[in-house]
Design goal:
20% strand; alpha/beta; Rossmann fold; 9-stranded mixed sheet; two-stranded antiparallel ribbon; 2 domains
């Protein structure tokens, strides 16, 4: 930890990574490890709220929710970072329209890519030279990569860091929880079918097991309005996510309907919520954002009161 570093050496500048230090070769492995831990803690201290976006299985639109939730926060005036922690299938660069942007690196670390005012992004997809190349990594390598995303990226002062995780309860969410230590909450994304209860229960129980507050469940792909007649069509039924929340004793964060324009928007690299035209989807994300902001601010107030 920070107190273990021999500060008499005057070379442990926490703004610099070990790889950027001229005296790197004179440090022991223990000193380098202590420096990295202190550097990580220093970077995380500038981030007010760290939110994990999870799902019990793939194909529920979790990355779409992550991007639009983060963008909605930024549009409401918050400073937001979105971290794509899906090492094997990073989609955030494409959805944010930054996949071909060059990364800038210097002694203080990597600069996240600016999506628009108030929103920054980082992803393994920005580091890979070949987007079609499969990343075949085991747990320790993935843990190391996520540690660098958190400790070696200059996120700056953020109100929210939204962490988009791969589906399931494997290495990546474990690494994020272990490295951050005080994750402020998890958002569980699911679909409306009854089987959503099975998948949501795993994600909720996982969060509880590692002491991460469950902010609630979002029911994505929850019906759609026919563009021709205006009738609502429940393609995947409705209510599975809400029932899961009720049975698991966690908040229900709302329904996000299907809108074909979301697919077009994501493929074009623009978060759907940026569109100024009013829509049910835009309203749903705005409501989701307000609920999460209230929950995190309430938690902050409780911590402040307990401290005093």
């Amino acid at each position: 930890m920070a107190k273990d570093i021999d500060m008499e050496k005057e070379k442990c500048d926490l703004t610099e990574s070990c790889s950027g230090c001229e005296e790197e070769t004179t440090c022991s492995s223990k000193e380098k490890e202590d420096h990295e831990e202190a550097r990580l803690a220093q970077k995380l201290s500038h981030i007010r709220n760290k939110i994990m976006v999870m799902s019990g299985k793939g194909g529920v639109g979790k990355s779409t929710v992550s991007v639009n939730f983060a963008a909605s926060l930024a549009l409401q005036g918050y400073e937001v970072g979105v971290l794509d922690a899906d090492i094997h299938g990073p989609d955030i660069p494409r959805m944010c329209g930054v996949e071909n942007r060059p990364l800038v690196s210097h002694g203080e670390g990597l600069e996240p890519i600016k999506v628009f005012k108030g929103l920054r992004a980082m992803s393994m997809g920005l580091l890979s030279q070949d987007p079609d190349k499969a990343i075949v990594w085991r747990g320790p390598l993935k843990h190391r990569a996520i540690k660098q995303f958190l400790g070696d990226v200059n996120w700056g002062d953020l109100d929210y860091l939204v962490i988009d995780l791969p589906p399931g309860t494997g290495d990546e969410p474990l690494s994020v929880a272990h490295l951050i230590k005080n994750v402020d909450g998890a958002i569980i994304v699911t679909t409306p079918q009854d089987v959503a209860l099975l998948d949501s229960r795993k994600a909720v129980n996982f969060s509880r097991l590692i002491n991460i507050p469950v902010l609630g469940i979002v029911e994505n792909m929850s019906g759609m309005v026919c563009p021709h007649c205006g009738e609502k069509i429940d393609l995947f039924k409705v209510g599975g996510g809400e029932r899961a929340a009720r049975e698991l004793g966690v908040p229900f964060l709302g329904r996000i309907p299907i809108d074909p324009r979301i697919v077009i928007s994501c493929d074009a690299g623009t978060p759907f919520v940026v569109d100024p035209e009013p829509s049910e989807v835009g309203k749903a994300f705005e409501n989701l954002t307000q609920v999460v902001v209230r929950a995190t601010e309430k938690a902050e107030d409780k911590i402040t009161s307990a401290t005093h």
